[in-house]
Give the backbone structure.
Amino acid sequence: MTAIKTGQLRTNIPHSRPTLGSEEARRVAEVIRSGHLAPGDLLQSFEQTFAEKVGEGSAAGVSSGTAALHLVLIAMGVGPADEVIIPSYVCTALLNAVRYVGARPVLADIDPETHNMDPADAKKRMTRRTKAMIVPHMFGLPADMERLTRLNVPIIEDCAQAVGSSYAGKPVGTFGRAAIFSFYATKVMTTGEGGMVVSGSKKFIERIKNLRNYDEKREYKIRYNYKMTDIAAALGLVQLKKLETFIRNRRRIARHYDDFLKDLNLKLPPADPGHIYFRYVAGLDANSTTLIQHLQKKGIMCAKPVYKPLHRYLKQKGFANTDTVWRNSISLPIYPGLTRGDADRVLSTFVKCLQGVGR
């Protein structure tokens, strides 16, 4: 067998990684020992604590962020005669949720600086059938809520990547008719799988809670199996206590990246005070695919931050900003547990590969 030189093998640095510890393990074990795994007191506690943290009135825990979107659209009365505006530069969960209720998704282009929905382009795509607008805060950077709210279309805030972010000093999730959050394994905080709906209207949240569980109802109508378990809620309560630390670490890593990369010919993430850096997204002046492939071979698991824009799935044209941003963007590893040594390895490898492939 060939001898391996010291330092020859290096572990990959993942694109994202959940930050879990002994407290999460202990709380989940307590739930298991209790024998009560279904939604119960822990879920109610998580909902109340989360609503207080976000700064909104009421909350309902559900099985995923997509389930949250689906239920919000139903609760708003969105149906087959309606149109819902969503950005093209986003994952397919939004497209799926709109189609689940039979509505027509209308795609909008993005602001090339923020990667969020462009209010001017969204306005151009509004019609008499526009019933709602789903507004993601992409990669933890708040969208332009001042201009978007002036469009006078009911807004669903998609905070799947932005829990803890703020716009003009106010928490995201408090600007629209309702907001949804995702707690998937790679999100800002995690419950394994899970999501949350928040709203200033208690009646609206009661509607969501009625829809998320189909059993033991006095009258029949279509409802869903979108419940969050007490196991997930136990995880969520611990993660929520750590949220400020998570965000502080993300911002610290982002500042380190900024300082190292500022003199290169790159478009760095906007230095917005509300940005929580769910992703650290840099823009090149050419297609990022080759660079990503080189970095992955070196064990740095970079990626395009959006796998594929929605208009490309739907074979639509007219989204120039989305096309350019998608083609040229690269997302570097960033998560609270990323060590300074690993961050330095990301940066040094990134610069070497950047110089090697050219731009």
Q: What stands out?
A: Residues 22-241 form a domain with the Aspartate Aminotransferase; domain 2 fold (CATH 3.40.640.10).
